[in-house]
């Protein structure tokens, strides 16, 4: 009977202790707002948007891949920097996933610009893009998602009529990264108010 009394006294006391500890602890499901990622995303969005606008009014010579290769190198460098930054932040899986998707979309854009795909991408092609990344060479390579291996694609021109929908897709995608960061910022502000 003594042990029964102890259980009746200890159990509520233990429950109160656990609730007190839980009340003092917050569970973090996503990372905190990161101003650097937010600013880098804004800069990349502006850079890509300007790129698509300028290409819409460019000469045929400027539409050739070889004349835009340096731009793609710069965009990839920006995405790499964002990915390194995002990877170093605790609980930042969603932002990392969004940046990886942006890298994949850049890879698809390069494939399209060099005319490396002959139709909708197969599952194997998207797998190659995910595993091997962006091919910024002058060639088409199957190991980077191309339909076939082909050399000397520098003179291939991007179709001017595809620029507006591609521009819109990149704006939406980078906008979603910025929206995620702003949602984190609002969450941080709510924590500060509590």
Could you give a quick summary of the protein structure above?
By secondary structure, this protein is mainly alpha-helical.
Describe what this molecule looks like in 3D.
This protein has 194 residues and is mainly alpha-helical. The protein has six helices and no strands. The protein has helices at residues 2-24, 35-56, 69-87, 93-113, 123-132, 163-193. The radius of gyration is 25 Å and the shape is globular. It starts with a helix and ends with a helix. The relative contact order is 0.15. The mean pLDDT is 87.
Spatial separation of the terminal alpha carbons: 45 Å
Helical content class = 55-70%
Q: Tell me the structural class.
A: mainly alpha
Unreliable stretches (pLDDT < 50, length at least 5) are: none
Specify Rg, calculated over alpha carbons: 25 Å
Instruction: Determine the mean pLDDT.
Output: 87
- H/E series: HHHHHH
**Main β-sheet, in a few words?**
none
Q: What is the 3D shape? A: globular
Feature tags:
194 residues; single chain; mainly alpha; 6 helices; globular
Write the layout of secondary structure elements.
Blueprint: H1 2-24, H2 35-56, H3 69-87, H4 93-113, H5 123-132, H6 163-193
């Amino acid at each position: 009977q003594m042990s029964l009394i102890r259980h009746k006294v200890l159990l509520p006391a233990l429950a109160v202790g656990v609730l007190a500890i839980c009340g003092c602890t917050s569970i973090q499901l996503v990372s905190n707002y990161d101003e650097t990622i937010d600013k880098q995303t804004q800069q990349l969005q502006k850079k890509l948007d300007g790129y698509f606008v300028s290409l819409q009014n460019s000469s045929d010579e400027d539409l050739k891949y070889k004349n835009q290769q340096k731009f793609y190198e710069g965009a990839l460098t920006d995405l790499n920097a964002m990915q390194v930054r995002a990877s170093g932040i605790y609980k930042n899986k969603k932002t990392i996933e969004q940046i990886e998707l942006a890298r994949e979309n850049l890879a698809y854009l390069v494939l399209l610009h060099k005319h490396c795909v002959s139709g909708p991408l197969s599952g194997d092609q998207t797998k190659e893009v995910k595993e091997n990344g962006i091919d910024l060479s002058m060639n088409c390579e199957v190991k980077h998602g191309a339909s076939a291996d082909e050399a000397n694609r520098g003179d291939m021109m991007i179709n001017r009529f595809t620029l507006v929908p591609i521009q819109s897709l990149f704006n939406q995608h980078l906008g979603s990264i910025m929206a995620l960061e702003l949602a984190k910022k609002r969450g941080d502000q709510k924590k500060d108010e509590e």
